[in-house]
Amino acid sequence: MRARNSLYIFTIPALAVLTLFFIHPIILTADMSFTSFKGIGAAEPVGWKNYDRIVSRDRYLDAIWITLWYTVIVVTALTITGMFFAAVLHRLPAIRNFSRAALYTPAMMSFVVVGYIWQFLYSPLNGGINVALRDLGLGAWEQNWLGNPDLALYSVAFTQIWMFTGFTCAIFLAGFAGIPEEIGEAGKLEGATSWQRFRYLELPLLGPSITVSVILTTIGTLKTFELPFILTNGGPDGATRMLSIEIINNLFGQYKFGFASALSIVMLIIVLAVSFIQNKVLRDRENVT
Amino acid sequence: MTSTADTHAAASGPSLDWDLIRRKTKSYFAHGLVLLLVAIMLLPLFYMVMMSFKTSTEIANDPLGLPASLYWGNYMEALSSMGYARSVLNSMGITVSVILVVVLAGAMAAYPLARLQNRVSRIIVMIMALGLATPNFVTITPIYVIFRDLGLLDSCLGIVLAFAALKLPLAVFFYTGFIAAIPVELEEAARLDNCNNWQVFWHVIRPLLAPVTATLSLFVMIMVWNDFIYPLLLLTDKDKLTVMIAVYKFVGNTGIDPTKLFPAAVLGSLPLLVMFAVFQRKIMAGATAGAVK
User: Fold this and answer.
1) Which of A10, A91, A216 lies closest to B109 in CB terms?
2) With bands split at pLDDT 50, 70 and 90, how would you rate the model's confidence at A74?
3) Do A26 and B139 touch (CB under 8 A)?
4) Region B175-180: what's the mean pLDDT?
5) By the CB < 8 Å criterion, does B114 face chain A?
6) Nearest residue on chain B to A126, alpha-carbon basis
7) SS3 letters for B188-207?
8) What pLDDT is attached to residue B150?
9) What is the ipTM of this complex?
C-alpha cells in the first residue's frame, strides 16, 4: 500500500500550478477584500467595510439582482430552446448531425466577436433588426434595443441565448440518444402522438441531462462579462451593470483592488451556493420522476 | 425484400397510397421547417460575412442588401493595420504551450486519482471541482498583482500558466474518468517486468490517452483563442497580443465603424470556424462527453 501511495507524487506538477495560480490567488482575494488596497503602496486593513458597502448600497445590490435575474432568464430560455431543437432533431435523423453542428457554430465564436455583430444588429438607425422590421412592414416594432433601459438586459440575454442554444441542444441530444429505442417504439404502437411521447416518455428520462445543462449554463451565465461589456458597458442607466462589469470597473477604472476583491468573493459565494443548491434540488428531483 | 414490398403495394389499394403521400408530405414539411429555423439561427453569421464585403456607402444606403460586388478593400485595410498574422502566431504559440502543460500535468495527476480512493484523493478531487466552478473573476485581481510583482506581466510564460490553471481541473476530470476505465491488469503485467510507476505511466497509460488528449486540446484551443479577459489584463506589448485582443484594439468599444468591425470579426473567428468544420464530429462528441457522465 505504501508503494501505491507514492503515486501521489504524480499530482505535484498539477497541484503546483493550481496552488500558484488558483488557490493562492483565492486566498489573496479573500485577504485583500478586507483592505483598502489601491494596487500600490500599503494595504490598509478596513475590516468588513467593503462588504458593508456592498450590502448597504442599492448600486451593488442592484448589480447582484441583475446578475441573478439575467441568469434566470438565460438559463430558462436555453433549457427550452435547446430542448425544443433536440426533441425535433431527435425525430429527424436525416438532418440531425448537420443541424446540431450548425446550431453549435455560434458557441465556437468568441464573446467579443458575437458582441460586435449584435451591437450592429441592434443599432437603432441602420441596425439589421430595425431595418428588417421596417422592410417587413413592422416599422412600429422598431426599438432602441440597447438604449432603452427596460429592454437592454433582455437584448443582451437574447444574444447569449442565441449563442448557446446549440450547446444545450447538443447536451439534450446526447440525453435523447441514451433513451432505449423500444420506449419510443412502444409509445408509437400505443398510438401516442409525438408530443405525448415527448411529454410522458422522453422528458421524464431526460432528468440527468437537464441537471447537467442547467448547472453548466448557470455557472457560465453568472460570470457573463464580455457581452454586456461590449454591447452596453453596463448601461443604459445601469440596466445591464452586472457584478462582473462592476468588478472590472473597480479594478481597472478606479484601481480599487480591495473593493473589487470583496465583489469577487461575493460572486464566488453566489456561484458556489447556486450550484450547490441546484445540484441538490435537481438530483433529488431526478430520483422522484 | 422487393417482392414483399410489391405484393404489399398491390394488395392494399389506393387508400394506403394516400396515407403514404400524406406522411411523406408531412415529413418533407417537417424537415423543411426545421432547416428553415436552423437557417434563421445562422442569419447573424451570414450578416457578418455579407457586411464585411460592403463599402461604407453601401452600408449606409442599403443596410440589409447584398453587396453589389465582393469588395475586398475592408479586408485589405484590416489585414494591413490590425497585426493579424502576428496575433494568429501568438495565439497558436500560447495554445500549443498551454496544451503541453495541461495534458502532461493533467494526465499525471489523474493517474493516482483514478487508481487510489482515499482521503488524499478526495481532497484533490474537491480542489479540482472548486476549480471547475470558480469564475476566473475571483482570481483576476490577485493574479494581476502577483504577475506584476513577479514581473510576469507581458510575459508569455505568465499567461500560459494562468490559462493552464484554468483548464487543468477539466483535464484532470477527463483523464481520471478515462484512466479508471483502463484495466489494471495491463499495468500489472508491466510491473512484473519491474517497471516503476513512471515507466508504467509513460509506456502503458500515456499511449492509451490519445482520444482524450485530442478532445482536450480542442477545448484548450477554443478557450485560448476566444478568451478576452486574461490577455486584456496581462498582455500589453503590441507584439504579444492574441487574436481577440487584436480584434478588440482594432475595432474599439465606441463609435464602431462597420467597415472595420465586420472584416475583423470574420478574420477573428475564421481559423476556429475552419477547424470546427474539419473536426466537427470530434468537437461535438467532446462537448457532450463531459456532460454525459
Assistant:
1) A10
2) very high
3) yes
4) 87
5) no
6) B63
7) HHHHHCCCCHHHHHHHHHHH
8) 86
9) 0.83
Tell me phi and psi for residue B87, to 5 degrees: -70, -35
Q: Which helix (H) or strand (E) holds B24?
A: helix B14-52
Which of A9, A109, A233 is the best substitution to test chain B (most B C-beta atoms within 10 A)?
A109
User: Quick check: B279 contacting A, CB < 8 Å?
Assistant: no
Chain A residues with beta carbon closer than 8 angstroms to that of B47: 117, 121, 128
CA distances from A93 to A211, A224, B46 (A): 25, 34, 25
The pLDDT value recorded for residue A154 is 94
- B269 touches A: beta carbon within 8 Å: yes
Mean pLDDT of B104-127: 88
Q: Where are the domains of chain A?
A: 70-288
Q: Is the pLDDT reported for residue A142 higher than 90?
A: no
Q: What is the DSSP letter of B248?
A: H
Q: Mean pLDDT lowest for which of A106-120, A245-259, B278-292?
A: B278-292
* A chain contacts of residue B141, beta-carbon cutoff 8 Å: 28-29, 32, 247, 251, 257, 260-261, 264
* Chain B hits for A89, Cβ within 8 Å: 34
| Interface test with chain B among A88, A118, A120, by most B beta carbons within 10 Å | A120
Please report which residue ranges of chain A form alpha helices under DSSP H. Answer: 2-5, 12-18, 24-32, 49-56, 58-90, 93-108, 111-122, 128-135, 152-177, 181-189, 194-196, 207-222, 226-231, 243-248, 257-288
How far, in Å, CA of B14 to CA of B194, rounded? Answer: 77
Confidence bin at B255 (pLDDT 50/70/90): low
CATH class, domain A70-288, is: mainly alpha
Q: What is the pLDDT of residue B137?
A: 78
d(CA B270, nearest CA chain A) in Å: 9
- Asked whether residue A105 carries a pLDDT value surpassing 80, the answer given is yes
pLDDT digits (tens, 9 = 90+) for B191-227: 888 888 888 888 888 888 888 888 888 888 888 888 8
| Calpha distance B284→A96 (Å, rounded) | 12
Exposed/middle/buried for residue B70 (C-beta within 10 Å: 0-12, 13-18, 19+)? exposed
Q: Which three cell numbers stand for residue A209?
A: 441531462
Estimate to the nearest angstrom the gap between the alpha carbon of A156 and the chain centroid.
12
Given phi > 0 = left and psi -120 to 50 = alpha, else beta, which region is A191? left
Residue A239: phi, psi to the nearest 5?
-65, -25
- State the cell numbers at A6: 507514492
